[in-house]
Amino acid sequence: MFLKNCSEYSILALIPLAVWSIVVNILLYFPNGDSTYAASNQLTNYVWYFQGICFGGLMMIILSAVLLLVDFYKCSSSCCAGRQSYNIHCSRLGSALFALLGVLFSGYSLIISSLGLSQGPYCRTETGWSYPFANTAGGYLVVYSSWSQCLEPGNVVEWNIILFSILIALSALQVIICIYKIIYDVMAMMCGTHKILAQPDPI
User: Fold this and answer.
1) If 0-12 CB within 10 Å is exposed, 13-18 middle and 19+ buried, where does residue 5 land?
2) Which of the four, 18, 67, 104, 143, has the lowest number of CB atoms within 10 Å?
């Protein structure tokens, strides 16, 4: 019972995580609240993969709704007529497959956000617009003195680091929840805890 409740609550937790992913990804398009850089395509290329808006956001909300519906699936008398007992492992299998799909969606968001954080922002330097930290393999994150290379947009390094880090944390939590859901469903199928007794329709 405890594991079942945790499974249901964890799926519910995917929804606010997805909403926050959408919000954070949108903020990446407006460094310091300025929309001119998005209009002129002067943003890091990894914000155009829509990892937080689409995969870690909208798709995860849809997936959460599907998982909740599958979890509360009940076998109707019409589909079970004439059967004294019906082992409904198909719902658990479907739930596990949808959770696996959630791992792929959130994993995509996690990977793309990590690459964006590692590459660093696209900004104007003394030599023009470029990725000044692209070859540092993320080493710029601890070399604060190098951040001044980005002259425009203002504070774009801090902006990207904070928002990409939040996206990474949100998608990592989504991955963990979906993996837990898969483990729970597989264990439920193996232990045979989801057996529904269905009575035939009265004549």
Assistant:
1) exposed
2) 143
Phi-psi region of 9 (alpha: psi -120 to 50; beta: other; left: phi over 0): alpha
Residues 105, 19, 58, 6, CA torsion sign: positive
Residues 6+ apart with CB under 8 A from 181: 7, 10, 11, 67, 95, 96, 99, 102
Alpha helices in the chain (DSSP H): 2-27, 36-39, 59-71, 89-119, 156-191
> What are the structure tokens assigned to 33, written together?
């609240």
CA dist 143 → 118, 139, 148, 167 (Å): 13, 7, 10, 22
pLDDT digits (tens, 9 = 90+) for 130-140: 999 999 999 99
| Sign of the four-CA dihedral 34, 39, 40, 45 | positive
Task: Answer yes or no: is pLDDT of 77 > 90.
Answer: no
What pLDDT digit, counting tens, does each position of 114-133 carry?
999 999 999 999 999 999 99
- C-alpha 160/C-alpha 173 separation (Å) is 20
For residue 148, how many other CB atoms are within 10 A of its CB? 9
CA 49 remoteness from chain centre: 13
State the pLDDT at residue 195. 45
Q: State both tokens at 95.
A: 């739930």
Question: For residue 42, what are its two tokens?
Answer: 């002067």
Residues comprising the chain, all counted: 203
